Amino acid sequence: MRTVRIALLGAAAALAAPSAALGAPGGSDDPARAVSGEILVGFGPGTSSADRERVAGRAQAAGRERLTSSDARAERFRLKAGRRNSDAIDAVRADAAVAYAEPNWKLSAVASSNDPYWTNGSLWGMGDGFGSQASTAWASNHTGSAGVYVGVIDEGIQYTHPELDGNVGNPRELAGNGRDDDGNGYVDDHFGYDFANNDTQVYDGGTQGKLDDHGTHVSGTIGGEGGNGAGVAGVNWDVTLISGKFLGRNGGTTANAVRAVDYFTGLKKGGLPVVATNNSWGGGGYSQALYEAIARANAADILFVAAAGNSGTNNDTTASYPSNYSLANVIAVAAIDRNGALASFSQYGRTTVDLGAPGVGVWSTTAFNTYSSYSGTSMATPHVTGAAALYKSTHPSATGAEIKSEILTSATPTASLSGKTVTGGRLNAAGF
Question: How confident is the model at residue 114 (pLDDT cuts 50, 70, 90)?
């Protein structure tokens, strides 16, 4: 995960237009960090079509498109051949109609692979000791509810996996009938939507190798079917997962991450009770477009659970996005091992990372009906997302703020996390 330094001065300051004097963000023209020939532009309220055309001309845009219907003010500009991102950003950001102009950052999953499961002790992250204590909740018959919905913003999900086949899909949208049954603007998105390829096939693993391992792995931790005598069990044995796929073989982009976040906000506004999204990814720099999309999710009462990152650095001093966005619905998660130690790769932050969760040697579902052990803050994050869903299943009237408060106040003090996270503790879902 690549990081950049940024000062967050609160919501009001963060929403202000960047100063033209600052110049384009560092890394704007680095093809490893940002999409070449693309920038994101946010317009101020009341901007006319003539204003937009003027700004597009200054940027030397060859094409434009709105990111989502949820935010008609944000557009992606595709620049003319040879036009540098930084030059385009500098050319437009001082325009009175422009609220912000920024790179379309490249994003990636936050995991590393290392090479079944509850009964043999492999699934330590669900148990007591330094695990999530989910098994204690199971002992009280708290195993989740299909009426709780979670968005998995990631790679796709193998929704046919025997541990996931009953827990993935929007019941308001029928598959394959050629209609937009739930009226959200997407046709046949029963399992979710692929924003990387602009289609409804959220699982491509069968034809492109184990492409969707990462998204399938985090899904199994959130909601692998338990009590069936096979494989693994998720924090929730029953839950409804929906895929917001935006990561592909070469990672993803800020623009498609914004579209994915807004997709779940749209589902929530349409009446589907989405409690949280899982965000085991990161990269690039600060994005006003993504900040505002997460803020819209916050307004819709959707938690945004995010991986702290795998560079072993302090997020208080070197910000890591999206976990560092200063918004009330964000929960930032570090990784610990089965002995309670902060993982050597895990990023941390006394004021910016909320708590730790199991993230080393985590077994879960992967593509082609398989199971794999992965490590990363990517693996810690779905334990917390799963806990949020589990709490919602037993407290159906709880708001996102109340769920977040319960997760943080119930964290178990842990020596390795003292002074390294906001709570100084690790996830404890025993009472959920």
Answer: very low
| Predicted confidence (pLDDT) at residue 292 exceeds the cutoff of 80 | yes
For residue 339, the tally of other CB atoms under 10 A from its CB is: 10
154 is known as an active-site residue: yes
Among 154, 182, 212, 262, the one annotated catalytic = 154
Last-in-domain residue among 104, 124, 156: 104
Q: State the catalytic residue, choosing from 142, 161, 190, 214.
A: 214
Q: How does residue 328 score in pLDDT terms, banded at 50, 70 and 90? A: very high
- Domain final position from 104, 129, 146: 104
For residues 28 and 90, what is the distance between their CA atoms, to the nearest angstrom? 11
Across 112-122, average pLDDT: 56
**Residue 397, CB half-sphere, CA atoms under 13 Å: how many?**
0
Res. 7: pLDDT tops 90? no
Domain residues for the domain of 56 are 11-104
Residue with token string 């704007």: 28
Q: One of 28, 70, 311, 378 is an active-site residue; which one?
A: 378
Structural domain tally of the chain? Answer: 2
217 catalytic? Reply is no
Task: Note if 142 is an active site residue.
Answer: no
